[in-house]
Amino acid sequence: MADIQKRGGYTPRRVREQRAYRLVVTGGVAGAVGVVTLVLAVAGVIGAAIPVIALIVAAICLVLFRQTVSGR
């Protein structure tokens, strides 16, 4: 009984919940920043690099969130 090993790739539920929460918060902030700066970029106040980067970060967070909460 001393040689019992954990399942490979097992992540505790609490860790998955924390990761999902962080991804939602980060993705939401990045999405909001992306939308606001996109409006400012269209108005000519700032360049287009910041909204593009923020929207890419939001999309990555969305993909990672869906992967985290999927029922494998």
Defining traits:
single chain, 72 residues, mainly alpha, 2 helices
Describe the structure.
- There is one protein chain.
- By secondary structure, the chain is mostly helical.
- It has one domain.
- 71% of the residues lie in helices and 0% in strands.
- The chain is built from 2 helices and no strands.
- The longest helix is centred in the middle third of the chain and has 30 residues.
Instruction: Supply the number of helical segments.
Output: 2
Biggest beta-sheet profile: none
The stretches of 5 or more residues where confidence is low (pLDDT under 50) are: none
- Report the end-to-end length measured between terminal Cα atoms: 28 Å
Which helices and strands appear, and what pairs or packs with what?
Layout: H1 13-42, H2 49-69
Helix pairs in contact: 1-2
Short description:
This protein has 72 residues and is mostly helical.
